[in-house]
Amino acid sequence: MYNSVVRPLLFKMDPEKVHYFTFSMLRKLFSIPALAGIVRRKFLVNDPRLEREVFGLRFKNPVGLAAGFDKDAKLYKELSNFGFGFIEIGTLTPKPQPGNEKKRLFRLKEDKAIINRMGFNNGGVEDAVKRLKKNKNVLIGGNIGKNKITPNENAVDDYIICFDALFDYVDYFVVNVSSPNTPNLRELQDKEPLTNLLNTLQKRNNGKPVSKPILLKIAPDLTDSQLLDIIDIVKETAIAGVIATNTTISREGLTSRDRDEAGGLSGKPLKDRATEVIRFLSEKSNRAFPIIGVGGIMSPEDAIEKLEAGASLVQVYTGFIYEGPGLIRDINKEILKRS
After folding, report:
1. Residue 339 — pLDDT band, cuts 50, 70, 90?
2. Are the C-beta atoms of 179 and 91 separated by less than 8 Å?
3. Residue 118, annotated ligand binder?
4. Which residues belong to any copy of the Dihydroorotate dehydrogenase catalytic domain (predicted)?
């Protein structure tokens, strides 16, 4: 029904407008008594064989929602009814910011892809914390970044603000230095500034009564040499793991009309490169740290490919938009078939 009825209707609307429309509709629908239970029965796959213990956390299943969909933690409870094992909110910044000028979100239907140049639009970390205080049982990742106006030499301060504000309300952290949509942000992926940033956060983390996992989200556009640097940085800073990958600036092989729009590309065209990065990190590090695999997961087979390449968990975003909530259920069922 999603592919034949719901998606064609939604895809007639502007991509950003339909996102907010969908949020509004889901909030209203899940306010209907008993509907959440009906949805969970349809989409949630409960089986102890799906459980995973990764970086000290227990996941009900290995399929999560990637950051960027529920930036401001407004719908994590409702979205969890679709069977996600975990939900990552953000990217959050210390101060609210509107993001880049519209239009900034483009569907590439022929390529099963999306280009976005949102620019960390969010209501600020303190606004999200108000809603996260109401969380009862959803495993939450907190994806953090810097404000656009903050120069790179002061970026660490922004990450510290977000880290401190979210610490009591998320289960793990994701340091986002790989979005292509904030000017000069990717320069923070260079070895020296990245090591300094992660060491600073780890020192703060280790000063807490109980520390929490910190992960690094990396771009798919890094060279092999840069990926080897990432392995060294993970070892040196003792962070918990890596999320591979963010969106790409590559446009290779695209056929859709809006293929040349600026921004980060996600979806099917990213599938192979994301898997290559996962496999490279896993093999070259001798599986020294967990990897969350994300990028181009449009089918259960795509998710299995990421897991076989070395990912411990996977996340979906564009696949969720194109294939609907049935994708999460189908991935978990396919994992069970192969267990």
Report:
1. confident
2. yes
3. yes
4. 50-337
